[in-house]
Amino acid sequence: MKELLMIPGPVEIPQAILEEFNGQSPAHYGDEWTKLYLNLIGDITNIFNGDGKSYLIPGSGSFGLETAISTYVSNKKCIILGNGFFGERLKAIATNYASELDYVKNDTKRPVDPGKFIEYLKKEKTQVVIMTQVETSTGILNPVKEIGKIARENNIFFILDAISGAITEELDMEEFGVDVVVSASQKGFSCPPGLAMVTVNKKALEEIKYSENKSWCINLKVWEEYYHNWFSWHPFPVTLPTNTIKALNKSVEIIKSSGIGEINQKYRRFSDKLREALEFLSLELYIPKEFSAHGLSAVSSSGRFNCKDLKDFLYENCRIKVASSLGEIGEKIFRIGHMSDAQIDPENVKLLLKGISDFLIERKIDHDLDSALKIF
Asked: pLDDT, tens digit, for every residue of 36-76?
């Protein structure tokens, strides 16, 4: 039985994108490849309504985060607004670069509070603010637009970790006041893992010249040098994962054809339906619906079972993978990814709901599977 990935990355990949990924890897240089690369980074920049440039960084999303942070935070004062495991990761990365770092911890079951940021700025000055768009460990959607407005009014550089929010959530760099967006291939872009994207606006593009970053391959100053000096055949400093980039190019074609606004709404509609179905299964979200992201759902056991047992049951009996959480909440919740067309396909969703129902029957927990299935 084929394994079905219903986790928040890597996602279950749609067939059309998977077909682009398979086969012989093309060379990462030359006229044809350079044209594809340059068109693709332009398209990614446009998807986020940026007016600068995008860079395709080999590695996971964390490589993109470290590239952005090392380039823009080195020897600067920085504040991180965090409310979970991945906020802490931002802190762990930035600690290695910032001259001074403050971490404002927010309630882990609520979005980052813009008021805390305002209060901080009444007492302290900072040059850079960093935040997750979606705190992946809990599925919280953070208030990017509100934080961006405050950052812009105070002339503070804003780096956004959009790894779990890109494509499934609304994100407009110009309107939201974001200077740098970091995303990755294996989530909302519906591609295999192995590629991070760093998208910068004009202001951030100019700032690269003054970066005090001492690293090499995770330094956008180096990437800019190669972009200009080797533009015609190799406008990047390292070998790129060409199959993943081919897949990403197909994904972007689909996004452009559908329209990013319609895609945002599609995931919003789906998440509402899934959460209604989960209620029929006598399950509830770990955090309130109004604070929840639209590309994943974090579901609580409400103390009635160990989520690891559910996770193991689904895999052993149905070959379906869901995820537990990270950090201190660990096995108290399980997370369902719905970040790709394959993950929101009704037949795949029904398989998941039936598998959860079988587990609940075994645990003698009352629920209404028929009503849940009728939603899809």
From this structure: 999 999 999 999 999 999 999 999 999 999 999 999 999 99
Relative orientation angle of helices 114-123 and 144-153, to the nearest 10 degrees? 20
Residue with tokens 């990270």: 326
Distance separating alpha carbons of residues 356 and 340, to the nearest angstrom: 20
Q: Compute the distance between CA of residue 334 and CA of residue 249 in angstroms, rounded to an integer.
A: 32
Decide if 139 contacts 287 (C-beta within 8 A).
Answer: yes
Is the CB of residue 56 less than 8 Å from the CB of residue 41?
Answer: yes
pTM for the whole structure: 0.96
**Distance from C-alpha of 84 to C-alpha of 44, rounded to nearest angstrom:** 28
CA neighbor of 233 nearest in space, from 33, 48, 30, 60: 30
Residue-level pLDDT at 332:
82
In which element (H, E) is residue 69 found?
Answer: helix 61-73
Q: What is the pLDDT of residue 327?
A: 67
Q: What is the pLDDT of residues 316-331, one digit of tens each?
A: 999 999 998 776 676 7
Tally Cβ neighbours within 10 Å of residue 26. 14
State pLDDT tens for residues 190-206. Answer: 999 999 999 999 999 99
Q: Report the C-alpha dihedral over residues 355, 360, 366, 370, rounded to 10 degrees.
A: 0
Q: Rounded to whole angstroms, how far apart are CA atoms 253 and 249?
A: 6
In sequence order, the 6+-apart residues with CB closer than 8 A to the CB of 306 are: 331
Among 181, 115, 138, 66, CA closest to 287: 138
Task: Give the position of tokens 């955090």.
Answer: 287
Distance from C-alpha of 33 to C-alpha of 22, rounded to nearest angstrom:
17
d(CA 235, CA 293): 35
Distance CA 329, CA 327 (A): 6
Helices then strands (H, E): number in the chain?
Answer: 14, 15
Pair of tokens at residue 99 = 């001259």
